[in-house]
Design a protein that fits this description.
The complex is a heterodimer of chains A (386) and B (127).
Chain A lengths: L4 E2 L10 H7 L15 H20 L7 E4 L2 H15 L6 E5 L4 H12 L3 E5 L9 H7 L4 E5 L13 H10 L3 E5 L11 H4 L3 E5 L10 E5 L14 H4 L7 H39 L3 E3 L10 E6 L4 H10 L2 E2 L5 H4 L6 H5 L4 H4 L2 E5 L6 H21 L5
Helix pairs in contact in A: 1-9, 2-9, 3-4, 9-14, 10-14
Chain B lengths: L3 H8 L12 E7 L4 E9 L5 E9 L2 H14 L4 H5 L3 H7 L5 H6 L3 H20 L1
Antiparallel strand pairs in B: 1-2, 2-3
Helix pairs in contact in B: 1-2, 2-4
The chains are: A alpha/beta (386), B alpha+beta (127).
Chain lengths: 386, 127
């Protein structure tokens, strides 16, 4: 078998060897609990402080504004649940968008079931939340607006600065899920007016099981977990020191290489998109034509089903993902594709290829070599085509 | 996730296509659900399914069950074919993931529709 080609970087990424090397000592020799006052404890404390500074620097935050979590999902839960619970005496309305990751959408819906009022904003066919749509949804009871920075399925990037400013004008705080964008797109929480931001390490060549929540100074946000007083009492639980160290290093590397990686990824993605569109008829790109995550390619092929495409690609050693029902684990295709207004039958034929720093032009060419044949084979089998 | 048999029938589906002057045609599912199975049969004078072809839109389970059902009934009598269930098709493939048992395991239904269509046509012809 030929070398496997991984094009599912929005799902997860490999840990960068430089990151891994940084982590190793903290599993064995430097194993201290950062809450201990002795030598080993203080060594772990310093390691966490360093990582916190690395993460904060990447998004122009102060280190004290970052708390480490178990990942993006926990950060989203804390931002949304804790904020709404702490502020419910001032209003019980929250707003999100129809294309959020489930970590946000399900959390908001959980609150709605508890009696909070939820507005889920529609998006344009390109996946954009429009300013005036948000404007109209805001009211005096609105406490929180949570809109993702870059979408995980179709790659669309929102105008966070504008959405945050509209939210503030109405007296609401603004949270963004930046799991897909932090480390890939420039983020300046101050300039963009972000109050809370969730991010994850394993999307940017760091380890799994760690992420962070940025909480702007001045925002009062209780801990979601009850227990010890770690993270300035904002996140109970012994710190996962090796993972935090790795996350910090991954942020430092992401910041160093952001521009060059983005340029390379966009070049490859462009080649891939153009190649697909010119060789495979009845195909459409999904998401925004220009405001998109570097390296993100999302397409829908008419008359075929996504899981079948994935398994055939996998047989050629090419790993990707899809928003079809069969891969979403439900009877419906992805809520994101449906929110863009795509009919079910088109959404079933979705394919997402997300490129990473180690993909090459040869990888792209290999995909372009086999994909047209796969789609043709499946279409030959499809009653919708005959 | 899938058995070797499912993967074999998915990667190398048997009896894909159409039949000229098919005796019966059956189709189940719809594009909204993401599964459509279309089966055509050719039945001879002794009520034996001489030939069977399928076209399927759907996931690997949908394609593999379609392929498997065509293998199971080719050369069988209509009576034998009518007794084949969706569950039997799944078992012949060494099982399907639970989630697929409901949505993508409709190949026997498509076959039964094709037999029904053939019976109705025969009735009309003899009337």
């Amino acid at each position: 078998m030929t070398r496997p080609i991984y094009m599912d970087h929005s799902a997860t990424t490999p840990v960068d060897p430089e990151v891994f090397n940084e982590m190793i000592p903290y599993f064995t020799d430097r194993f201290g609990n950062a809450s201990s006052i002795h030598l080993y404890g203080q060594d772990a404390r310093r390691a966490i402080d360093k990582a916190r500074a690395q993460v904060a620097h990447l998004i122009n935050a102060a280190p004290q504004e970052i708390i480490f979590t178990s990942g993006g999902t926990e950060a989203d839960n804390q931002a949304i649940v804790s904020y709404m619970l702490a502020n419910q005496n001032k209003g019980n309305h929250l707003i999100t968008s129809a294309i959020e990751h489930h970590a946000v959408l399900e959390t908001c819906e959980h609150l709605a079931k508890q009696g909070f009022e939820l507005t889920v904003l529609p998006v344009t066919p390109e996946g954009m939340v429009e300013a005036d749509v948000l404007q109209k949804a805001l009211k005096p009871a609105s406490r929180l607006v949570s809109i993702m920075h870059a979408n995980n399925e179709v790659g669309t990037i929102q105008d966070i600065k504008e959405l945050a400013s509209i939210s503030h004008a109405a007296g609401a705080v603004f949270h963004t899920d930046a799991v897909q964008s932090m480390g890939k797109l420039p983020i300046d929480v101050k300039a963009m007016g972000i109050d809370m931001l969730s991010a994850s390490s394993h999307k940017i060549y760091g380890p799994k099981g760690v992420g962070c929540l940025f909480i702007r100074k001045g925002i009062r946000l209780p801990s979601l977990l009850h227990g010890g007083g770690q993270e300035r009492k904002l996140r109970a639980g012994t710190e996962n020191v090796p993972a935090i160290v790795g996350f910090g290093k991954a942020c430092e590397l992401a910041e160093q290489h952001m521009a060059e990686r983005a340029e390379k990824l966009e070049k490859l993605a462009h080649r891939l998109r153009e190649g697909i569109l010119t060789t495979i008829p009845n195909t459409r790109l999904t998401g925004h034509p220009s405001q998109r995550l570097p390296g993100s390619v999302s397409v829908c092929f008419q008359f075929v089903e996504g899981e079948s495409i994935l398994l055939m690609l996998d047989s050629f050693g090419i790993m990707a993902s899809s928003g079809s029902a069969c891969t979403s684990g439900s009877l419906d295709p992805s809520h994101v594709l449906l929110a863009l207004g795509l009919p079910h039958e088109i959404a079933h034929g979705s394919l997402r290829l997300t490129l990473g720093k180690d993909n090459t032009a040869e990888d792209v060419d290999k995909v372009l070599e086999v994909l047209p044949g796969i789609i043709a084979t499946l279409r030959k089998m499809s009653p919708l085509c005959n | 996730m899938y058995s070797q048999k499912v993967m074999d029938h998915f990667m190398n589906p048997r009896n894909v296509g159409k039949i000229d002057l098919a005796s019966g045609v059956g189709e189940v599912g719809n594009p909204v659900c993401g599964d459509i199975m279309h089966i055509e049969i050719k039945v001879n004078d002794e009520d034996i399914i001489e030939d069977i072809k399928f076209n399927t839109f759907g996931c690997a389970a949908a394609i593999a069950t379609s392929s498997m059902v065509t293998e199971m009934v080719k050369g069988k009598t209509l009576e034998e074919a009518e007794r084949i269930t969706n569950r039997a098709v799944a078992e012949a493939l060494d099982g399907l993931p639970e989630v697929k048992m409901h949505c993508s395991n409709l190949a026997a239904d498509a076959l039964h529709e094709a037999i029904k269509d053939y019976m109705a046509k025969r009735e009309t012809a003899s009337a």
